[in-house]
Specification:
mainly alpha, 8 helices
Amino acid sequence: MWQRTRTLPEQLLAFSLFTLAGAVTPGPNNTISTLSGATFGFRRTMPQMFGVSAGYPLMLAALGLGLGELFKVVPWLHNAMRYVGAAFLLYLAWKLVRANAPQAAGTARPVGFFEAFFFQWLNPKAWSIALGAIAAFTTPGLSANAFFWEVAIFTLVSAIITLPSLVLWCLFGVAISAMLKDEKKRRIFNYVLAAILVLSIAALFI
């Protein structure tokens, strides 16, 4: 059990810092939150942020409890997910850019909860952080029960850290939205962030 693990405080501190570094640095989730915040505002971006905050920790838990072994047994499944992830990133980039197109102004909507939730399984940054966390911070040799609680607490910590990080990026988008009232500047901003999403596709195939 956790109480019997002498290095628990150190584990939690190291894991929290690792997770925070991954959560606050640029990536597809943060880019989407920023662009959505600038385009749709904070309230309409909340489903996307909650979707990420639920989806990533659950993915971490699933990998920690053994789902990652499935990809060793069925490697083509992981490869297929990479291509689906690339296609979905392209779709999100197109969708968020079109959100400011005049002809789409009346029909555009932000990324929803379930889109953000399931995207975590296709997000290259989320995969690398989750796999790195499981490999680096779980304790070898624990009983099944103790290991379950270890993964459960790491999952909770991830959920606690992920949402505030997304909120910061979204608020950044909201803050600069006033500066982006000029249509030309707003389009440039949208295209730059959409390009970051497209460039992140490269991480899927490295």
